[in-house]
Amino acid sequence: MNQSLVIESLKKSFGDFKAVDGIDFYVEEGKFFSILGPSGCGKTTLLRMIAGFLEPSSGSIRICGDEMIGISPNKRPVNLVFQNLALFPMMDVGENIAFGLKRQNFSKKEIEEKVKNILEKVHLTGYERKNVSNLSGGQKQRVAIARSLVLEPSILLLDEPLGALDLKLREQMKIELKKLQNEFGTTFIYITHDQSEALVMSDKVAVMNNGKFEQIDTPKNLYANPKTSFVANFVGETNKFEAKLIDDAGVVKTKEGIDFRVNLIDKNIKKDCFVFIRPEAIVMMVEGNMEDMNYFDLSIKTILFDGSNTKVLATLNDTEHEIMVSLPQNRKFAHIKEGEVISAGVHISDCKCYE
Ligand SMILES: Nc1ncnc2c1ncn2[C@@H]1O[C@H](COP(=O)(O)OP(=O)(O)OP(=O)(O)O)[C@@H](O)[C@H]1O
Ligand SMILES: [Mg+2]
C-alpha cells in the first residue's frame, strides 16, 4: 500500500506555547483518517501545516513521497474544506465548482464536463445554475466538497466540515461523506471533536491531546482497548471512578468505598488511579459467583428512554455514585422501574484501570 502522507517529528510553537508537540504518523492511500481531539488541542494548526498555510517549527511532511516543507499551498496536491465552507455567495453552484479549474487553465468545454460529472457524483445533477445561498445546509456541504474534489487532489483535508449543520443533517452527512470517500477513493484527513463522527467514518483515528497524538488506531480498537486514561474518557461513553490501588495484583478501592478487581492497563500505577467501565459492559440480573467478575447491587434512579439506545442511571451498592448502564434489548428488562434494586456484575477485563 502506498502512503499518501508521512509526517515525522512535526512541531509548531507560538512563542513558548507548543501547539503541535512532536507528531509522527502516516496515512495510506485512499483511506479515511480522522484526527479527534478537544478544542484547542492543535488540530487546525496541524492541518494548516499539511495544507501549507503555516510553516512548521520543525519536522517533515511528505505527500506522495515528496517533501512539502517550503512548497507553497497551491503547489501541494491537497485541498482544504473549511468549517464555514467558504462558498462564494455571489456565484452559482457551477461557478463555485469551476473556480479552481479556471485557475488551472482548463478549456471551457473541459470545465463544463468536469462540473457536470462531479455534480452527478454528489447527487446534485441539474443544480449548475442555482444560487448557492438558496441551497440547504447539506447541499452547500456537498457543493463545498465537490469544489475540492473536482481538482482531484491526492489528499482532501476537512476541518470540522459538519460543524455548522444541525444534528439530524450531521447524522445524514456522516454516512454520505463516507460513501463519497469510498466512491472517489481520495485520501481524506478529517478533523473533528465529535467522537461519533470519527468512529463512524474512519479507517483509522488519531486521538489528539495537548499537541500530541495519544493513540492511533482503528475505531473498534480505540473503543475496546484505549491505551491512555484520556482516550478511555474521550472516546465513547464511559463511567469513571477515582480510586486507589490497594493490591498490586489489581484490586482498587473507589473514592466511594467500593472494591473492584481491575484490568491494569498502566503497569506503573503507584496508588491513585482511574477506573473506566463502559455502560454496556455492566450485566444486569446476574446471580452466581464467577471468578472473573465483580458483583454489586444497582439501585435504579432514572430510566433515560431513547428507543434502541435506552439507558438507566443507577447508584452502586449503598453509595451515591451514579453510573450509566445500557439497557439490553431484551424483554426481560422491559419491566425495570425506578427505585428497584438489581443484582449486577462486570467482567474484570472490562474494568480498565489507568494512572
Ligand atoms: N497564530 C497563532 N498564534 C498563537 N497561538 C495560536 C495561533 N494559532 C493557534 N494558536 C493556539 O494554538 C492552540 C491550538 O489551536 P488550534 O486552532 O490548532 O486548535 P483546534 O484543535 O483546531 O481547536 P478547535 O477544535 O477549537 O478548532 C490554541 O491554544 C490556539 O490558541
Ligand atoms: Mg480547529
Secondary-structure map with pairings?
Layout: E1 3-14, E2 17-28, E3 32-36, H1 43-51, E4 58-63, E5 66-67, E6 78-81, H2 93-103, H3 108-121, H4 137-149, E7 155-159, H5 167-184, E8 187-192, H6 195-201, E9 204-209, E10 212-217, H7 219-224, H8 229-234, E11 239-247, E12 251-254, E13 259-261, E14 263-264, E15 272-277, E16 283-284, E17 293-304, E18 311-316, E19 322-326, E20 341-347, E21 352-354
Helix pairs in contact: 2-3, 2-4, 3-4, 4-5
Bound molecules: adenosine-5'-triphosphate and magnesium ion.
Magnesium ion binds next to helix 1.
Structural overview:
The structure is a single chain. This protein is 24% helix and 35% strand. It has 355 residues and is an alpha+beta fold. The protein has two domains: 3-229, Rossmann fold, CATH 3.40.50.300; 237-285 and 292-354, Nucleic acid-binding proteins (OB fold (Dihydrolipoamide Acetyltransferase, E2P)), CATH 2.40.50.140. The protein has a six-stranded mixed beta sheet, with helices on both faces. Helix 2 packs across helix 3 and helix 2 (93-103) runs parallel beside helix 4. Bound molecules: adenosine-5'-triphosphate and magnesium ion. Magnesium ion binds next to helix 1.
Instruction: Enumerate the distinct ligands.
Output: adenosine-5'-triphosphate, magnesium ion
According to CATH, the fold-level topology of the largest domain is Rossmann fold
Tally the beta strands.
21
N-to-C SSE string, H for helix and E for strand: EEEHEEEHHHEHEHEEHHEEEEEEEEEEE
